[in-house]
Amino acid sequence: MSEQNEASRSLTVTPLHGMPLFSTGTCVAREIAAAMAREGDALRDGDVVVVAQKIVSKSEGRTARLKEVVAGAEAVRIAGETQRDAAAVQLILDQSSEIMRAHPAAIIARHKTGHVLANAGIDASNVEGGEDDTVLLWPVDPDASAREIRAELRDLTGATPAVVIADSMGRAWRIGTLGTAIGCAGLCVVDDRRGADEDLFGRTLQATMIAVADAVAGAAVLAMGEGAEGTPAALVRGVGRWVSTEDGPGTTAGLRPVEQDMFR
């Protein structure tokens, strides 16, 4: 086994503490670098920085006020069927390319980015004013946001870590949410090992495709917390063999094509 593969067996996740409340214009990369300095550490090539979607959206000014939204006829219809606020439904429609299911528990939508999730990722938790009518939308292009943060980190620190933007999403046929990559730069999204490796008994792998970016996001979000912990970023080490100097195609590389949907 190579030294690189041996090192990848040790995985560490370190939440970055002491970060401020983010608002429009707050530089995510600068705050990550400052948090690393407080930890007495420095970013290295091969590191992965996982960032909560909320602080990226806040820094990009992706807030909306429900009282300023004008609901159309389709939003009013769906709101009646799901017992939801019509303005909130209109925002979901605005952020989506398709509504998959509409139910009082959740509206399952295909976001304009291609990700399928509840309520198009629109959320009011941990949002200042969320107790009133302010909600947070996803970044317009999370992969582009990840590439920008990565470039800024390189300029600030001289290192080129991978960057993953994570949000908590549900999973088909499972209860609960899991940290999931919605934006990625510099990290393998899916490691396709079909035909390239063997199992313990020498059989060629036929179906193994590892969701690397999602696995890293899940580990980081578990350590970061999703309530009042106030740690919206984490440093992941030990997955360097999947980190690349190139930004890569982003999380869109891990989205299943619509024509492969077996549940329509």
From TrEMBL:
Gene3D superfamilies noted in UniProt: CofE-like, CofE-like domain
SUPFAM superfamilies: CofE-like
Keywords recorded for this protein, A-Z: GTP-binding, Ligase, Magnesium, Manganese, Metal-binding, Nucleotide-binding, Potassium
Protein's UniProt keywords contain Ubl conjugation: no
EC number: 6.3.2.31
Residue intervals of the Coenzyme F420:L-glutamate ligase-like domain: 19-238
Molecular function GO terms recorded: coenzyme F420-0:L-glutamate ligase activity
Record-given protein name: Coenzyme F420-0:L-glutamate ligase
